[in-house]
Amino acid sequence: MTYFWFIVSLALGVALLISRRKLRTLEASSATEREALSASIKSIEENHRREISRFLDAIPEPFFSIDSAGKLLRCNYAASEYFRGRSILGRSYQQVFIDDGLCQLIKRSREIGRDEVATIRFPSGSPFSAHAGGNMSVWEVEIRSHSIRRDAHEYQMMMRNITAVTHADQIRQDFVANASHELRTPLSIIVGYLEALMEPDSFDNPTLGKKMLSTMNRHVERINRIVEDMLVISRLESSEGVPLTSETFSLNNCVRDVVERLELVIEKQNARVSSDVSGIQMQGDPFYWTQILFNLVENALKQNTSQPVEITIVAKKIATDEIEITVTDNGIGIPNADLPFIFKRFFRVEKHHGQNAVKGTGLGLSIVKRAIEAHQGKISATSVPGQETTFRIVVPS
């Protein structure tokens, strides 16, 4: 916000300069001239106030001026929008801002007489209303001592909502932690088995050696899957777009491929996957559609390792130019609080009843959403925990 404060300082400096020149002009004028000049000056000052207001209204972040008595003198349009018609000018900042942390920051700046910059978290979602609701928001607050009127002392406060930036930083930190954990576990197993195999006479027991090699291979595949997910989401989110192939293919072939790839997991969990997609021809990239269905089915299996789950894939035409695909399971479900975030990168739904989180980097559903959007489609999810979870895809035919 340094550039903003430079412009404010310049505007206020010009205002003070104009005021001083006007005073000198009045002192040197006759009574008649002073009266005429006084009217002219009032008009100029009014125009100047309007220009300052236009300048402040052009700032997208909330801006406030607070006088030496702690009352609000002015605010810009972005700030007034948060109060929904409430009159705040002339009120003390304690009456306007409900958050104690923000009020303490303003108080400290006024008492010490110095500029303050701080990052404040507001648990109600907004510092402007006790009924804001929503999740916690994070704001950068900057208070500086600048006066528009030379006969009064003012404090100008600028606020910037940095919730999205803070959330993105937290996501990156969580991803590093999750990816490190997911990679460290299989690597530790592989290293341990390699050390065992390098011991003298380690191949005297071929059965044990074969078992070790099989386990190592399984964990290498796990590492490859994590790396592949990271590469896929990187391609899907790149500014250059995704190089999709466009061909006509049978959705049934994609479903069959998914079931074959997950056959061992399905049998191990005593799960059941059924489909009704016969006759549905798709236009697009069959590789990504197979990946979409694979991630959705695998996600349902991962969420329900402790109980047999039934997964149903249905596709039908819902308009002359649209196809609807649904993937439904009768498993543990997704909590309502988590539904808005399940397609975000690295987000992982926590399992209920104190169990550990489902393993993975949290990229699967993000890949699904990006791949569908690359095909000009949309995906949504609904869930009744313990009864039914449905992912609904609508895509041009």
Q: Would you give an account of this structure?
A:
This protein has helices spanning 2-27, 31-57, 77-80, 93-96, 100-112, 163-197, 206-236, 251-261, 263-268, 286-303, 364-374; strands spanning 63-67, 72-75, 116-122, 137-144, 154-161, 247-250, 272-276, 281-284, 310-319, 322-329, 378-384, 388-396. It folds into three domains: 2-161, 2-Layer Sandwich (Beta-Lactamase), CATH 3.30.450.20; 166-236, Signal transduction histidine kinase, dimerisation/phosphotransfer (DHp) domain (Helix Hairpins, Orthogonal Bundle), CATH 1.10.287; 247-396, Heat Shock Protein 90 (2-Layer Sandwich), CATH 3.30.565. With 397 residues, the protein is of the alpha+beta class. The chain has a five-stranded antiparallel sheet, sandwiched between helices. Helix 1 (2-27) runs antiparallel to helix 2 (31-57), helix 6 packs antiparallel against helix 7 and helix 8 packs across helix 10. The model is unreliable at 351-358 (pLDDT under 50). Strand 11 (378-384) and strand 12 form a beta hairpin.
Task: Please provide a brief summary of the model.
The chain has 397 residues and is of the alpha+beta class. The chain contains 11 helices and 12 strands. The chain has 3 domains: 2-161, Beta-Lactamase (2-Layer Sandwich); 166-236, Helix Hairpins, CATH 1.10.287.130; 247-396, Histidine kinase-like ATPase, C-terminal domain (Heat Shock Protein 90).
In the CATH hierarchy, the third-tier topology of the largest domain is known as Beta-Lactamase
Query: Can you tell me the CATH architecture of the largest domain?
Result: 2-Layer Sandwich
Alpha-carbon distance between the two ends:
48 Å
Question: What's the pLDDT, averaged over the residues?
Answer: 79
| SSE succession | HHEEHHHEEEHHEHHEEHEEHEE
DSSP strand content: 15-25%
Tell me the strand order in the biggest sheet: 2-1-5-4-3
Q: Give start-end ranges of low-pLDDT stretches.
A: 351-358
State Rg.
32 Å
Structural class: alpha+beta
Please name the fourth-level CATH homologous superfamily of the largest domain.
PAS domain
Structurally, the number of domains stands at: 3
Topology, number of strands: 12
Q: Helical proportion?
A: 40-55%
Query: How would you sum up the major sheet?
Result: 5 strands, antiparallel
* DSSP summary: helix tally: 11
Q: Quaternary state, please? A: single chain
State the shape.
elongated
